[in-house]
Design a protein that fits this description.
Blueprint lengths: L9 E4 L4 E4 L3 E3 L7 E4 L4 E6 L14 H7 L9 E10 L5 E12 L4 E4 L5 H9 L4 H17 L5 E5 L4 E4 L12 H16 L7 E2 L5 E2 L1
Antiparallel strand pairs: 1-2, 1-6, 3-4, 4-5, 5-7, 6-7, 8-9, 9-10, 11-12
Helix pairs in contact: 2-4, 3-4
Length: 211
């Protein structure tokens, strides 16, 4: 962390110490809470009005830790702290807003969004690993996401198809997630046979896997 002048814009911790100046952060233009990327450290900061650790799993601020607890593969390095977002308004006056700052690692890889028709691309890249353990872990990750209720499923394929990392987390509070998630898990499972591996016996409608 760094010291700062009294008029510096940025994210600050609870003691008033500068975490990152606003000038070093890239606004990722999230549709929900403000999200900033620090290209130097490889960290992403999400800014909330409520404590993500205390909010419920249907609250946009609490959903990240709830997803992690449900074994949904979200970005690594989840940490949260109280602090301030300091920014000058259009009149040049510095404003200070109490916030909770959620920190994660930045994820790089090939972007996918199942609602945009990327199902086949994901399946092909996962099966191309020709690694039974990796492929079955991906199937489990998809089923975990489905049971958690993940909707508009999107994220990154990392490590040449070795892992799916889910981002922009939203969920259905009244049931399972997007059916295309379950469909993809089943298609990848079927693909195991083409690689001469033993697929799971079945993937049930509730997302449970029968070994």
């Amino acid at each position: 962390m760094a010291s700062s002048s009294g008029q510096e814009e940025g994210l600050f911790d609870e003691s008033g110490t500068l975490i990152r100046p606003l000038s070093s952060l890239t606004n990722l233009k999230s549709r929900g809470e403000p999200v900033f990327r620090d290209t130097k450290s490889g960290l992403v900061y999400k800014v909330f009005n409520r404590d993500p650790k205390k909010a419920g799993k249907d609250d946009p601020s609490g959903i990240w830790f709830a997803a992690q607890e449900a074994d949904v593969n979200v970005p690594a390095g989840l940490e949260v702290q109280r602090g301030e977002r300091r920014e000058k308004n259009k009149n040049g006056v510095l404003t200070k807003k109490p916030v909770y700052i959620l920190q994660t690692r930045f994820v790089e890889g090939r972007f996918f969004q199942l609602s945009k028709g990327h199902e086949k691309m994901v399946m092909n890249e996962v099966l191309a690993t020709k690694n039974e353990e990796v492929i079955k872990k991906t199937i489990r990750d998809l089923c975990n996401a489905y049971r958690f209720g993940l909707t508009d499923v999107q994220g990154f394929i990392t490590g040449n198809g070795a892992e799916l990392i889910f981002i922009d987390i939203h969920r259905n509070s009244n049931g399972p997630g997007s059916i295309d998630t379950l469909s993809l898990a089943r298609k990848i499972n079927e693909g195991l046979e083409t690689l001469k591996f033993t697929p799971f016996t079945s993937i049930k409608d509730d997302g449970e896997i029968e070994e």
